Amino acid sequence: MKALQGVDGHVAWVEAERPTCDAGQVRIRVAAAGLNRADLLQMKGLYPPPPGASPYMGLECAGVVEEVGAGADWRMGDRVCALLASGAMAEEVVVDARHVLPVPEGLSLHEAAALPEVYATAWLNIFQLGAVKAGEKVLVHAGASGVGSAAIQLCKAFGNPVWVSVGSQDRLAYCQALGAAGGVVRNENLDELKAFGPFDVILDPVGASYGQMNLELLARDGRWVIIGLMGGRKVELDLAQVLAKRAQVTGSTLRNRTDEFKGELLRELVQQVWPLFGEGRLSPQLVDTYPVAFAEAAYAELASNQVSGKLVLVIDPGLA
Q1: Distance CA 221, CA 244 (A)
Q2: Which residues form the Enoyl reductase (ER) domain (predicted)?
Q3: At what angle do helices 146-157 and 169-178 cross, to 10 degrees?
Q4: Which pTM was predicted?
Q5: 294 CB contacts (<8 Å, ≥6 apart)?
């Protein structure tokens, strides 16, 4: 089979060994795979897969089950999407059966490929680690990203007013169309966020450059969940504010969680989130698809920071 390999900031569609399908696993014929910012780091050698995981690119995919290992609760021909630690961008993937989800009602395989990573990330960090309660205010930095798009929609669906920081007025309008109450453009004046706060939960993929500001924006007993370091890794903070606000600062990654943890997370998604797609309350926000032969161009678009929503690579155009 073939898989997408990242080397020195570039990608190549290369021959790869076909994995075996063991007990508790399923083999999926991949229709499409979603792009994520973590892929850009892996391409540069800055975010390698966990030990024992596939060396190839990709954290999420969708396709059709073509082999079922002993004890796996799936059937041949099931239309599914899946969360992987790596290797989703391949003609076939073998996945822990607990990390496989049904394609939500009414969605194509291309749309489903844009769901597992971003919705799992948003649900984990706002609703589980952030422990948001109905009515509490949420701030999402990089609100027009794939994770941001999912977070805004989830907050709206579960009764949490949400504000964003974004890179342009067009992206702010996009977030408001998804349900954000408002926000600011980051290269103008982030201090304007204070007019909307304080916030009970802040979802932060930026890190250091927003650090002190996040503390100032947090409500008492607020939760600041850091999921990325686009703005750097080192920051000086006023710890007196951490004490006075009883702030909780949490670092979070999903990729290196245990198989058991991911299985429970995805089970909760299927129960509480997946039905909302069929009801029209959530959307994959798929912006564009690229044939796998144009993977380099797809990643260049993602790296431009101009994408509002999700990009997907089409692996098998015969599946949709």
Answers
A1: 9
A2: 6-313
A3: 40
A4: 0.96
A5: none
**Beta carbons of 149 and 172 less than 8 angstroms apart:** no
- Asked whether the beta carbons of 149 and 165 are under 8 A apart, the reply is no
Number of H helices, E strands in the chain: 10, 15
DSSP-assigned states of every residue in 135-163? T--EEEESTTSHHHHHHHHHHHHTT--EE
Cβ–Cβ contacts within 10 Å for residue 265, how many? 19
- Name residue, tokens 């020195």: 8
What is the residue extent of each domain of the chain? 2-115+284-314, 130-251
Tens of pLDDT, residue by residue over 237-275, are 899 999 999 999 999 999 999 999 999 999 999 999 999
Pick the CATH number of 130-251 from 3.40.50.720, 3.30.300.30, 3.40.50.300, 3.90.1150.10: 3.40.50.720
pLDDT per residue over 73-112, tens digit each?
A: 999 999 999 999 999 999 999 999 999 999 999 999 999 9
CATH placement of domain 2-115+284-314: 3.90.180.10
Q: In this structure, is the dihedral angle defined by the CA atoms of residues 75, 80, 81 and 87, taken in order, positive or negative? A: positive
φ and ψ of 27, to 5 deg = -100, 130
Name the CA radius of gyration of the chain, rounded: 19
Q: Please give the structure tokens belonging to residue 243.
A: 């004490």
How open is the CA angle 140-143-144, to the nearest 5 degrees? 170
